[in-house]
């Protein structure tokens, strides 16, 4: 059975050219970038060259890029690093953030911080006016994601950034799902901190970065050496960073093409469902093109995912499947309420490298067949 991978929002396969760059670097760039001998200096140059690619991709300067182990560490560094440096105990976030943000905020809440969790509308979008209303004299941080990983909704980050730019409040955005899909310019967005992960755009797992605007207060969260300008201790993963930069370079070269391609795949999928007579509604709006989250009445998500998997289709829901149970998607709960049927019958398909119209046609047809079969049970 040839599997059809439709879970690129969870993680993406590495691009062949990235695999090649990664493999070559592992065999040749083995020095420690902090060493002063020529082998170390070669690694330092490779690291500096890669950092420049990363910085240019978001219109930042090289020193503003802190290499991390991925998006979770970047989010944690942004939140805990800000809290450790600033006076005040109030943080504003949204109810639909990734758990790397929500769980970090929950930890601070247990330590005495006051967290405001902003609601979203039925499309999964935060209102910038709600951010304004939530601001207080002791607000130190606003952290709102750029693009939602479950329903794909794009948040009004530039509007919020404009609102906050003349204040001393730090503004962070989790751009992990949006990076490589949306054009990102930190000057236009007016963000102080921005998180990114390589494995979402066909790079390796275990590497990412946090953008830190020059002058933004941030305390290191790791104790050790003086790497990353004393902001993130630990010897840098040079081959991973080189591969990350290669993935970014490829992504930057074909952003417009990917946007059109993924939008086309999304429309093909929906058209097939409609032609097959499947009743469905799309969750979210003003979305990134690579995410399609649909609610299909009459199905149970757990059995639906199992049947899709048996049919050779890798997809996911907004729910965390554990032993015999499914936790409700916090994103869908925030959008529709705790008793909404969408929580029990929504599935996410996400698109990426290697997919063709034929793949999508086949996947949508199998989705329709499974939907009809399960609806009769």
Description:
By secondary structure, the protein is of the alpha/beta class. It folds into 2 domains: 4-12 and 254-375, Aspartate Aminotransferase, domain 1 (Alpha-Beta Complex); 16-253, Aspartate Aminotransferase, domain 2 (3-Layer(aba) Sandwich), CATH 3.40.640. Helix content is 42%, strand content 15%. The strands form 4 sheets. The protein has a 7-stranded mixed beta sheet, sandwiched between helices. Helix 4 links the parallel strand 3 and strand 4 (114-118). Helix 10 packs parallel to helix 14 and helix 11 packs across helix 14 (357-375). It is globular and about 65 Å long.
Key attributes of the depicted protein:
377 residues; seven-stranded mixed sheet; alpha/beta; 14 strands
Helix/strand order, N-terminal first: EHHEHEHEHEHEHEEHHHEEHEEEHHEH
The span between the termini is 26 Å
Gyration radius, rounded: 21 Å
**CATH level-3 fold name of the largest domain:** Aspartate Aminotransferase, domain 2
State the domain count: 2
Structural class by secondary-structure content: alpha/beta
The profile of the biggest β sheet is: 7 strands, mixed
CATH homologous superfamily grouping of the largest domain: Type I PLP-dependent aspartate aminotransferase-like (Major domain)
Report low-confidence residues grouped into runs of 5 or more: 319-324
Give the % helix.
40-55%
Second CATH tier, the architecture of the largest domain: 3-Layer(aba) Sandwich
> How large is the share of residues in beta strands?
5-15%
Mean pLDDT: 95
Strand elements, count: 14
Broad CATH class of the largest domain: Alpha Beta
Enzyme class: transferase
Domain Aminotransferase class V: 4-362
Keywords: Iron, Iron-sulfur, Metal-binding, Pyridoxal phosphate, Transferase
Catalytic activity: (sulfur carrier)-H + L-cysteine = (sulfur carrier)-SH + L-alanine
């Amino acid at each position: 059975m040839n599997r059809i991978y439709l879970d690129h929002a969870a993680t993406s396969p590495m691009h062949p050219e990235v695999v090649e760059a990664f493999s070559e670097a592992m065999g040749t760039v083995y020095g420690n970038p902090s060493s002063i001998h020529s082998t170390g200096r070669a690694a330092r140059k490779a690291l500096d060259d890669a950092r420049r690619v990363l910085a240019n991709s978001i219109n930042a300067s090289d020193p503003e890029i802190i290499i991390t182990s991925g998006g979770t560490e970047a989010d944690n560094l942004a939140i805990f690093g800000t809290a450790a440096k600033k006076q005040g105990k109030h943080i504003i976030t949204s109810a639909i953030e990734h758990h790397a943000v929500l769980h970090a905020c929950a930890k601070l809440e247990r330590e005495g911080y006051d967290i405001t969790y902003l609601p979203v509308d039925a499309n999964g979008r935060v209102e910038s006016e709600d951010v304004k209303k939530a601001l207080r004299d002791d607000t130190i941080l606003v952290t709102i994601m750029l693009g939602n990983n479950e329903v794909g909704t794009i948040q009004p980050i530039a509007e919020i950034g404009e609102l906050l730019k003349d204040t001393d409040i730090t503004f962070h955005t989790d751009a992990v799902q949006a990076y490589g899909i949306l054009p990102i310019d930190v000057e236009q967005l007016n963000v102080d901190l921005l998180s990114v992960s390589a494995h979402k755009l066909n790079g390796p797992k275990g590497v990412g970065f946090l953008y830190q605007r020059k002058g933004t207060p941030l305390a290191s969260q790791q104790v050790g050496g003086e790497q990353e300008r004393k902001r993130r201790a630990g010897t840098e993963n040079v081959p991973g960073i080189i591969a990350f930069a290669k993935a970014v370079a490829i992504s930057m070269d074909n952003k417009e093409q990917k946007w059109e391609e993924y939008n086309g795949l999304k429309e093909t999928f929906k058209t097939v469902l409609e032609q097959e007579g499947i009743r469905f509604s799309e969750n979210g709006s003003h979305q990134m093109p690579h995410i399609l989250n649909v609610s299909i009445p009459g199905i149970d998500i757990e059995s639906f995912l199992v049947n899709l998997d048996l049919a050779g289709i890798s997809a996911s829901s907004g729910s965390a499947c554990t032993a015999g149970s499914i936790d409700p998607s916090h994103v869908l709960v925030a959008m529709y309420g705790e008793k909404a049927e969408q929580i029990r019958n929504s599935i996410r398909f996400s698109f990426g490298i290697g997919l063709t119209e034929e793949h999508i046609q086949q996947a949508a047809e199998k989705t329709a067949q499974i939907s009809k079969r399960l609806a009769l049970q």
